[in-house]
Amino acid sequence: MFLNDGYEYSIRAYSYDGDRTVPLPLLTIPGLISSLNLRRLRWHQTSIDTTIVAAEVDKGHGLRELLAWLGQGKIETVAIGDSRWDLPMFLAATRSFAPAQIDCAAIARALCCRIARRPHQAGFLEIVRSLVPPERAGGRRSGVSELASLGGDELFLDLLRAADRGRWRSLLSALLDPKSLRVFLA
């Protein structure tokens, strides 16, 4: 088990499966919380880690507290998220958005969240474009291909493209890449 020491008010724990991080085994945290009688904590797992937070805290609570602290309880707020852990924030915000792959789309829609047509980064881009009119974005709407024509950092652009690629497509690309094959032939 490894802890991400960059978190001060929550715990992010993970393990490794090969070269990638994974959440802790499913029954580890509930068993630990129960055996230590830590009823004021709750936990959730993502595909890469396990997070432990105070039971009364969620993203909606955080948004409301931030607005109260700023003395801005009635201003317009926009929330963008892509998981069920974002639902309380959607409820607290005046407008909310999610990319198409959100796994709780029906509940999000019931909270008046607008769901983008596209998933992942393309969905986030679609959301941002709907929020920022072209004249405020310098009159242009840039995509990855347009950024590439500007002579941007190729590694960064490759990472943006890879982020939206599916697991099987990534695996196939790696298998067909001559550089990858050299590792096995050496």
Explain what the structure shows:
This protein has 186 residues and is α/β, with parallel strands linked by helices. The chain folds into three domains: 2-54, no CATH class; 59-131, HAD superfamily/HAD-like (Rossmann fold), CATH 3.40.50.1000; 144-176, no CATH class. The chain has nine helices and eight strands. The chain has helices at residues 28-35, 59-70, 87-92, 105-110, 120-131, 144-149, 154-163, 167-176, 178-185; strands at 2-3, 11-17, 20-22, 41-45, 50-54, 78-80, 95-98, 113-115. The strands form two sheets. Strands 1, 2, 3, 4 and 5 form a five-stranded antiparallel sheet that branches. The protein has a three-stranded parallel sheet with strand order 6-7-8. The two termini are 33 Å apart.
In DSSP terms (H or I, runs of 4 or more residues), the helix count works out at: 9
Helix fraction by DSSP (H/I, runs of at least 4)? 40-55%
Could you name the CATH class of the largest domain?
A: Alpha Beta
CATH homologous superfamily classification of the largest domain: HAD superfamily/HAD-like
What is the molecular shape?
flat
| Percentage beta strand | 15-25%
The largest pleated sheet is described as: 5 strands, antiparallel
* Rg, Cα atoms, Å: 20 Å
- CATH architectural name of the largest domain: 3-Layer(aba) Sandwich
Distance from first to last alpha carbon = 33 Å
The CATH topology label of the largest domain is Rossmann fold
Mean pLDDT: 85
Structural class: alpha/beta
Structurally, how many domains make up the residues?
3
Order of helices and strands: EEEHEEHEHEHEHHHHH
Number of strands: 8
Unreliable residue stretches: none
